[in-house]
Amino acid sequence: MRLFIVPILILLTSCGIHLRGSVQLPPELDDMAVQDADGATDLLPELKSRLKTKGINLDAAADLVLQLRAEQYGKRVLSVDSSGRAQEYGLSYSVRFSLKKRDVAGKESVVWLNEQTITLTRDLRFDSGAVLGTENEQSQLRKEMRRDAVLQILQRLQKAKPVVSESLPSKPVPFKPTPSKPMSPNVDKQ
């Protein structure tokens, strides 16, 4: 049995399939600062922990800055019973972030990842007879959404590279007027 498992695992890893959660970050991201714009997002401790387990040195003075810009939870009614009471809720979680490299003066100048938003949703069945259990389940679903958001942030960091703007020329382009043709009078032929 083991003789069949080893070749299958080698085949799967060689074709690019990786286990869920296995993210290899590039060496350019070895030193990074993580800033929290809100001051206390729920995501920050989980994100820092995962970055450290990936071998990232978290240093507030690092050139690369991963900035968590906003975090938001949402809850809406998905279905109601015949009495108009909520039976099912939709929970949502979104987080906005960007990755930039500071220039020499300490400002963030080179964009590695433009501001991106990760949005996750989960369904929650509401049982009026077990309100405490429903609250615990809601808390667990929020925790799960944060873990999934951290994984998605790591996957996007895995592909991060400096963004090169092709829309603006690197050097000023001199103005060259095109030669104009003499205008012919507009003549109506009747």
Secondary-structure blueprint of this entry?
Elements: H1 2-14, E1 31-36, H2 44-53, E2 57-58, E3 64-80, E4 86-102, E5 108-125, H3 131-158
Parallel strand pairs: 1-2, 1-3
Antiparallel strand pairs: 3-4, 4-5
Helix pairs in contact: 2-3
Describe the 3D structure:
The structure is a single chain. The protein has 190 residues and is an alpha/beta fold. 27% of the residues lie in helices and 32% in strands. The chain has a five-stranded mixed β-sheet with strand order 2-1-3-4-5, with helices on one face. Strand 1, helix 2 and strand 2 (57-58) form a beta-alpha-beta unit. Helix 2 crosses helix 3 (131-158). The radius of gyration is 26 Å and the shape is globular. 12% of the residues are buried.
Please give the CATH class: Alpha Beta
Report the strand count.
5
The percent range for strand residues is 25-35%
Multimerization state: single chain
In short:
The protein is an alpha/beta fold and 190 residues long.
Annotation keywords:
disordered C terminus, 5-stranded mixed beta sheet, alpha/beta, 190 residues, single chain, 27% helix, 5 strands
